[in-house]
Specification:
mainly alpha, 47% helix, 132 residues, Cytochrome Bc1 Complex, Chain D, domain 2
């Protein structure tokens, strides 16, 4: 029970403010094809598929992280571009010469779900990562 409450609270911190204030009839409500909607859906995908290893804070410190060597990536500090992130999510770590523990989600997730989780990850990454 407490794990479910904790996960719900953690999810609330990742939900944009418009989710709790806007309604579909509101002209400010983001449409399905907006970036904001994609990020919101990405939070849901991340919390369902990624949080166990990458953690609630996407810092690579999930509950299962201690089982793996190397540890799961800290997605907050990742310097990988969106195309690479999509590729590793779709094909897994082994195919890209990375950790074999990173599963290939291409058969499990839809193209939209993969794009959404990439949008979410892009929204939480440090803005200084790509400014090298």
């Amino acid at each position: 029970m407490s794990r479910r409450i904790f996960s719900s609270i953690a999810l609330l911190f990742c939900i944009p403010a418009w989710v709790t204030t806007a309604t579909p009839a509101d002209p400010n409500y983001p449409g399905k094809t907006t970036h904001e909607a994609s990020v919101y859906r990405g939070v849901i995908v991340y919390n369902h598929y990624c949080v166990l290893c990458h953690g609630v804070n996407a810092d690579g410190a999930g509950r299962a992280a201690k089982l793996y060597s190397p540890k799961p990536a800290n997605l907050l500090k990742s310097d990988k571009n969106d195309q690479y992130m999509e590729l590793i999510i779709r094909r897994g770590g082994k195919l890209l010469g990375r950790s074999e523990a990173m599963p290939a989600w291409g058969e499990e997730l839809t193209d939209e779900q993969i794009s959404d989780v990439v949008a979410f990850l892009g929204s939480i990454r440090s803005p200084n990562i790509h400014a090298k």
